[in-house]
Design goal:
The structure holds 2 protein chains of 2 kinds. By secondary structure, chain A is an all-alpha fold. Chain A has one domain: MetI-like fold. Chain A is 76% helix and 0% strand. Chain A is elongated and about 75 Å long. Chain B is an alpha/beta fold. Chain B has 2 domains: 220 residues, Rossmann fold, CATH 3.40.50.300; 98 residues, no CATH class. Chain B has 11 helices and 12 strands. In chain B, the strands form 2 sheets. Chain B has an 8-stranded mixed sheet with strand order 6-7-8-3-9-10-12-11, with helices on both faces. The chains are: A mainly alpha, B alpha/beta.
């Protein structure tokens, strides 16, 4: 294999890693300091074009666009991490129980997962909003709940493949109980698949959070969020299209980054895929 | 009292159209230090029988009959009582050494696992015992190899590791399910010699499962030939090889590898995907048997004595024998 082939195989993972680390970087910077306050309304300076002072200009209320973008990354990351954590925790637990117990338990879990798929995150967010009011907690719950069946299916399918291997029988012969077999033998072996799926779901969660905030179901004012920035920019689409462009680019690059990263990790972990390239 | 007694063991597995009986009433017994071979082609029920003996059948499987270990009937017992025997008093070596080892754990840990669970050894004691076991199964540099991962070992070495795992608790019975089928011929030889040597040193009973009469012939005292979930012939191994009574045993023998033998006799291939032998009321081999006649299909042939401790389940043994004399293989 020549060095070029290696680098072209690593390209997605490098590009994806860089793009995916953008929102993280933005959120970290915004935690330390933003050029201007992302919540301070400054009507006299509304809709300024990008300048040396306001690098990306200001929005309809005079807030600094760059500061909003940086601070908005916090919500995206928070929702992404929490929603994937919920999906990963509960989904993997359910999937592993289904694979380990088989029979009616597996049937029940998988039919519930089918049911879960029938409810898009937006629908559950509307429901939660109606019951509890708005807020990013709702986004987290709605997107997290949507992730549960995804991880349940993936972990059940990969766990089933591991369960057919003889070392599971060998572990049972060694006298191990089902819980320690699942934790010590099955879970580590399906971890690569789960990491890939988690990366991809993270990108989707960022997208879903932006969608929910855009619809007014997620982050509430004055909390800065990419989705809300899009919503605010909507009415001024013709006067100041850049206001929709910047958060749009931020969302697109983050989602693209996490997808590329997920693909890259999968290629790296799957020797059959990487050899073909 | 026999170490292991299996009487009239019947195993059914669920299929699309309900339970299908795969193993029909198998009986065998294994005494201390005795070596027994189960030989037959894929799907004859060899592995299911072995899994039943250690109660590791899939949960949906239904079985009946009697499995007694040291005289105690084990079938009605709950799984935690099996746990004390399985891996502890009965060790098992699986067919695929790659699949039988967890790719993410060092082999030392995997060999030490049964020791820690069954004998309660602490981490260090289990580790040094694991080193001794690896040494015993012929792994060079055992102390360093404890930390090796399965992918760092060759196929033969991996199978040695699984043998070490099976022997960890000094079992009374070693079940080896096609232990050499995934290995190349020279390694097969070494692994068989290793198993035979260990069994003799420890006075273990051995149950060797194989589709290869050659493997069975050199390793075990007693051989059971299985076909379609039934034992069709049982005999002390030398008698079986000298006087192959059942037509299936003869076909199996004729199909063995002979170096430089050129074209070999082949069994007629069955037309249907699922063997009708499992469902027909008569002799399971009737569909492929050159000596088949209508009576063969009416009832399962009972064991007919052929010699001392030698029996074959065939109603046309005399015809088969005459045919063999007329045209020696």
């Amino acid at each position: 294999m020549n060095p070029r082939a290696v680098s072209s195989r690593r390209l997605p993972i490098v590009v994806g890693g860089c793009l995916a680390s953008l929102p993280l970087l933005e959120a970290l910077i915004s935690l330390v300091a933003t050029p201007f306050s992302p919540v301070q309304i400054d009507i006299p300076h509304k809709l300024l074009l990008p300048s040396s002072q306001h690098w990306l200009g200001t929005d309809a209320l005079g807030r600094d666009e760059l500061s909003l973008l940086l601070a908005g990354a916090q919500v995206s990351l928070l929702v992404g991490i929490a929603a994937v954590a919920i999906g990963l925790g509960m989904g993997v637990a359910l999937g592993l129980v289904a694979a380990a117990r088989k029979g009616w338990v597996e049937e029940l879990v998988m039919r519930l997962a089918d049911l879960g798929f029938a409810f898009p995150a937006v629908l559950s967010a509307i429901l939660l909003r109606a019951v509890f009011g708005g807020g990013i907690g709702n986004s987290i719950l709605a997107i997290g709940a949507f992730n549960i069946p995804v991880f349940a299916r993936v972990s059940r399918a990969s766990a089933n493949a591991i369960f057919t291997r003889d070392f599971i029988l060998a572990a049972r012969v060694a006298g191990k109980g089902p819980v320690s077999i699942v934790c010590e033998h099955v879970l580590p072996n399906i971890l690569p698949t789960l990491i890939v799926q988690a990366t991809i779901q993270f990108g989707l969660a960022i997208l879903a959070e932006a969608a929910l905030s855009y619809l007014g179901l997620g982050a509430q004012p004055p909390q800065p969020s990419w989705g809300r920035m899009l919503n605010d920019a909507q009415s001024l689409l013709f006067e100041a299209p850049r206001l929709a462009l910047f958060p749009g680019i931020a969302i697109a690059l983050s989602v693209l980054g996490f997808n590329l990263l997920g693909d890259g990790i999968r290629d790296m972990l799957d020797p059959r895929l990487s050899r073909d390239r | 009292m026999a170490l292991l007694e299996v009487e009239n063991l019947t195993i059914s597995l669920p299929a699309a159209d309900g339970l299908v009986e795969i193993v029909h009433g198998i009986s065998l017994r294994l005494d201390k230090g005795q070596t027994l071979g189960l030989v037959g082609e894929s799907g004859s029920g060899k592995t299911l029988t072995a899994l039943a003996i250690i109660n590791l059948l899939p949960e949906q499987a239904r079985l009946s009959g009697r499995i007694a270990f040291n005289g105690a009937d084990m079938l009605p017992r709950p799984d935690h009582e099996w746990c004390r025997i399985r891996g502890n008093r009965i060790g098992i070596v699986f067919q695929e050494p790659m699949s039988a080892l967890n790719p993410l754990q060092p082999i030392g840990q995997q060999v030490a696992e049964p020791l820690r669970i069954h004998t309660g050894l602490d981490r260090n004691a289990a580790r040094s015992e694991a080193r001794r076991l690896l040494d015993r199964v012929g792994i060079a540099n055992a102390a360093q190899r404890l930390r090796a991962y399965p992918h760092e070992l060759s196929g033969g070495q991996r199978q040695r590791v699984t043998i070490a795992m099976a022997l960890a608790c000094r079992p009374d019975i070693l079940i080896a399910d096609e232990p050499t089928s995934a290995l190349d011929l020279t390694i097969q030889r070494q692994i068989l010699d290793l198993i035979a040597g260990l069994v003799e040193q420890d006075h273990m009973a051995l149950m060797l499962i194989s589709h290869d009469l050659g493997v069975i012939a050199e390793t075990v005292q007693q051989t059971l030939v299985m076909y379609g979930g039934r034992i069709v012939e049982s005999a002390p191994t030398p008698d079986l090889l000298r006087n192959r009574a059942h037509p299936y045993t003869q076909a199996l023998f004729a199909a063995r590898l002979v170096p430089g033998g050129g074209r070999r006799h082949r069994l007629p291939t069955l037309a249907t995907g699922r063997s009708r032998a499992l469902l027909s009321p008569g002799c399971p081999f009737a569909d492929r048997c050159p000596f088949e006649m209508p009576q063969c299909r009416s009832a399962v042939p009972p064991p007919v004595p052929v010699g001392e401790a030698h029996a074959a389940c065939c109603i046309r043994l005399d015809v088969v024998r005459d045919a063999n004399r007329a045209a020696p293989a």
